[in-house]
What we know:
By secondary structure, the protein is an alpha+beta fold. The chain has helices at 4-14, 20-32, 41-47, 56-67, 82-109, 243-246, 261-271, 297-307; strands at 115-118, 125-128, 134-137, 142-145, 155-166, 175-177, 184-187, 191-197, 200-207, 210-214, 217-221, 225-230, 235-240, 253-260, 277-279, 287-293, 313-315. The strands form three sheets. Strands 1, 2, 3, 4, 5, 6, 7, 8, 9, 10, 11, 12 and 13 form a 13-stranded mixed β-sheet that branches. A hairpin with a 4-residue loop joins strand 12 (225-230) and strand 13. It starts with a helix and ends with a strand.
Amino acid sequence: MMNSKIAALYKKFLRGELSPEETAIFLDLLTSCERDELPDLDEVVALDDRDCELNKTTSEDIFFAITGTPLRTPTVSIWKKRWSVISAAACTLLIGLAFLFQFKGQHKNSAYAIVHYSNPTKFVKRLVLPDGTHVSLRQGAKIELLSDFNTDSLRRIKLSGEAFFEVAKNPEQPFVIASSGDFDVRVLGTAFNLNCSQGHSRLVLNHGRVCVSRGKEHSIVQPGQQVAYDRQQKQFDVSKADTTIASNWKSDLLSFKEVPLSQIVADLNNLYPDSHLELIDSFQTESYTGYLPASDLEKSLTMLNTAFNQIIIYKK
Length: 316
């Protein structure tokens, strides 16, 4: 059954009555709705109750637009049937819509200067985007605004690193994180933690609902769940998550739950590239559960060494 809002806008589109604002909304609805909300051919035909009588020239133009070849004489008679005429027109419109949507963003963004945000500090950086979305940007993370939030039908951004998003709700302008890690993210208004570090992408949803996609694959994530993409199985892996632990870094804390010490040392070396930390060999297989201050390396080392009652990590 066709979505009522799509039906209303589709009818205005067939009559050429859509405003520019309605056109943007209509295009986004067609690309974001569920499959069962899309119209089938009979429903499209039923939307237009006008009598339609096409002359030979118009019929030839429609046929040529669809097939790329002139209309042959033996096939002229089929265009006199109302159903066939509207069907051909509907197909032409759908082809035009797909073509228009494909290049819509490119034309709009051609004159748009991409806005960049980054966090080169050792502290969490907090931002408010033009639409009112709040972002906590982790150390070393970067964000690019790929579209104009004031005029485009989508709020598109790109993320490198880890960030926590509290997205301002706007049903008519979805928020999309694209070309960031293993999958794209699409939301209307919600709060979630997203890590798009190299070789690892994970989203943990606090509240709301998000859709993640990679090519033709997609998955819906519910509150209290996390999602990652399994490259070997070529599918999304959705599981329960501790939302508090996932975003503890916002409070300037690094959180670990049975994490190998070797991995913790690697994380600290990434955070403090000039520290050159080393873990003694006898503790390479040991793990640690707890918290460490993200902005205080010396305190972190003291806490780790105290936890194991000896110096296990040292600077080269």
